Amino acid sequence: MDSSALTLIAAAVAGYLAGSISGARIVGTRRGAGDLTTTRVVLDGTGSTVETHGVSPSALQARGGGKAGLPAGAIDIGKALLPTLVARIIWPDTPEAVFVAAGALVGHVYPIYHRFVGGYGISPLLGSLAVIDIRAPLLTIAAFALLGLLLGSAFIGIEMWTLALIPYFIWQGEAWTVAFAVLANLIYFWRSRAETVAALKSWRRDPRAWRDRVQDFKKYPDYEVPAP
């Protein structure tokens, strides 16, 4: 099928509608998880905390453990992976798949079905990257895991790998995927700006030895479930 402005718009809209499906709400409703919009996260071994305000698999995991968070994450990965894969099959050499992925990411964070209150975007980003370029998340996550270990910061090692997508796709030389990586980072870090600032401040002020800080990787993140 030929690519056109109309197919690009249609791809973005289709991705947005699929991305607006909330895995956390689907699983959370069945499990009686209650309100998922506010969760307190312990950032590191110093006890520094920050409130997160998003309906995500992580928020559901805080209330129901991995048995709740994993299926919600699988739904959120799948809602981006499947439509992106369909677009790649129909338009194998054009940017429609990237437009679907971008739409799914925006829909996840600002879902039309849920008054534009969604998650942070990591699950649908992983789903779409599995189709667009599976090497991207593998290499960037590994690179930032190593960087986090060297710097003694679980937050940097686990949460900031999306930054490496930009130079990766610049290296690949595809303008649409570079734009997608930039969009993903803008949305993710705008959405998680409070957590990012708090985590980096805590890391800079952390007086512990490197070996003690690295131990944070074993328990990160540590959620505090809101009192009923």
Shape: globular
Q: Count the helices. How many?
A: 12
DSSP helix fraction: 55-70%
CA-atom Rg in angstroms: 18 Å
Given the helix and strand composition, which structural class is it?
mainly alpha
The secondary-structure element order is HHEEHHHHHHHHHHE
How many separate domains make up the residues? 1
Number of DSSP strand runs: 3
Largest sheet: 3 strands, antiparallel
How much of the polypeptide forms β-strand, as a percent range?
A: under 5%
What's the rounded overall pLDDT mean? 93
Strands of the largest sheet, in order across it? Answer: 2-1-3
Which parts are unreliable, with pLDDT below 50 for 5 consecutive residues or more?
none
Can you describe this structure?
The protein is mainly α and 228 residues long. It has one domain (5-224). Helices cover 65% and strands 5% of the residues. The protein contains twelve helices and three strands, in the order ααββααααααααααβ. The chain has helices at residues 5-19, 23-31, 57-64, 66-90, 96-109, 122-132, 135-151, 154-159, 165-172, 175-191, 193-205, 210-214, and strands at 39-42, 49-52, 222-224. A three-stranded antiparallel β-sheet has the order 2-1-3, with helices on one face. α4 packs parallel to α6 (122-132) and α9 packs antiparallel against α10 (175-191). The chain is globular and about 60 Å long. It starts with a helix and ends with a strand.
